[in-house]
Amino acid sequence: MFPVVSGSANVVLPLILGAILLTILPWTLRKNIVDKDGHPIPPGPLLRYAFLRGDPERSLHVWAKRYGPLFSVWMGNQLCVVISDPQVARDLFVTNGSIFSSRKEYFMKNQLILRGRAITASQYGDRWRQHRRLVMHVLAPKAVQKLGHILENEARDMISSLVHETKEGVLPINPALYIGRFTFNNLLMISFGIRSDSISDPLFQRLLAFSMEFMELTGPLSNIIDFIEPLQKLPSYMKSRGHKLHEDLIEVYGAMILRVKARMDAGEDVPDCLVKTLLETQEDEKLDWEDLCMLCAVFIFVVHSTSSTIQWFLALITLHPEIQAQAHAELDRVVGQENWPTPEDGSRLPYIRAIIKEVQRTHAPFWIPAPHYSTDDFVYNGMYIPKGTLMVLDCYTIHHNEERYPDPFTFNPDRYLGDNLSCAESVNLSDAMQRDHWTFGVGRRICPGITLAERMLWLAISRLLWSFTIHEVPREPISLKECSGAFGRTPLPYRVNLLPRHDTLSSVLVVDDEMNVKI
Ligand code: HEM
């Protein structure tokens, strides 16, 4: 027989329940802290989160509407402040950049995989400045200018492969891998001085797989292991994937670096590239082996950002034939049929430029760019932002602000007509509200590859438009649903018909083989 519940058990049970609640509550409810002068942290949701599922930017968008352009949310024990207003972003990240330019030591991305290296994971300080200075050897505007022949060659190669694979427009094609190889080869040439000949190249496939694994493991608000610290001490599948990726990166990129070194040691004429710069300066700059491997790895990880933008362009332009017709008319009027557009034609083709900006606004590859991290206490408009806060730029909400972009969910390049600045120039506008879009981030950590990315996008998109009329394949509707794939947020896989527009295309495509350095 069970004993009848005694009087003492009646007291013990609520006590146990109360103790459990007291232990759990601080882990589930937000903590409203104030500074010594009573300034509260920005308002925000009542609950704490271990991670944000699915598309985290949608949650941020809902909260931004409810709590305003500066709100806070707790992820586990980490306070995050979310910024979804251009002026606030400028005030914090630019005007007060000395406080808001570090990075959180994310467990997965920064500690396990990149080990605090590769610029993007570096804390704000001398080491970050050193890495940024080194990559600017190949990314500064003047350096990008010198890369012109590489980028031109890859654009030509991409168009040529598309013409060939579609049998001059007879067969439909899924363009994703060809676009991926265009971006990948540019980055390989710039970092290692080599290129890949085919989309079935094992190295191309392997490095793309690393890039995809990196994307999957390192979402800024989606990993429970980043925010619930006790989990970091336990063995887990996620942890072993992070370790494995780190080891793979060292092995594969290490071997590629050694190959460049062997060529340099043998007195071969290695083209100027990131690895050459790093090897030549390794001793003076006191770079260790992991620095070298991770700096190179991050150059290839960015492949998806440019690729996904080009994939979005093709999907959107196919679904908007009236915009495509207007672009073709501009190209025919300004460039004609004998030659295709060059980077110098940018200012003469404002509609093509507007299309590219609108693609970037409507489908930024990172709706939540790598968050910044604050290194000092700060009070902004009476709200307290403590040292150690994760600073999140909410690009999704900024890009769908009705005031700045009327009818924001419509793809409408016209909104950018009259904007004659490149993205790199637009960043510096004193009126933050007038900046074209925020796809490249903000402040001192802004994407250092912005000039290169713009040049790649221009060459790929203007030449795809010049070369082809792009049609939907009958009975294969293109979906604009965003999905996470090998290139980040891409459209679901689709095929298009690419019909050559000019008889002159084949002569324009005559390949200049001189600079092709094969793997
Ligand atoms: C369309 C293409 C690209 C987009 C949309 C893009 C976007 C971004 C964004 C949003 C950030 C974070 C900025 C911030 O912290 O505020 C970033 C950082 C970075 N990007 Fe890009 N990027 C692109 C292409 C490239 C290219 C081509 C390279 C170089 C080859 C590159 C190299 C980097 C590096 C090294 C960082 C880390 C900077 C730091 O932490 O200081 N990106 N990029």
Automatic annotation (TrEMBL):
Compartment(s) where it occurs, according to its Swiss-Prot or TrEMBL record: Membrane
UniProt GO cellular component terms: membrane
Matches recorded under CDD domains: CYP64-like (cd11065)
Transmembrane segments: 12-29
Predominant localisation class: membrane
Pfam families linked: p450
Residues bound to heme: 447
Cofactor(s) needed: heme
Pathway: Secondary metabolite biosynthesis
GO MF annotations in UniProt: heme binding; iron ion binding; monooxygenase activity; oxidoreductase activity, acting on paired donors, with incorporation or reduction of molecular oxygen
Keywords, sorted A to Z: Heme, Iron, Membrane, Metal-binding, Monooxygenase, Oxidoreductase, Transmembrane, Transmembrane helix
Similarity remark: Belongs to the cytochrome P450 family.
Record's protein name: Cytochrome P450
Organism, as annotated: Meripilus lineatus
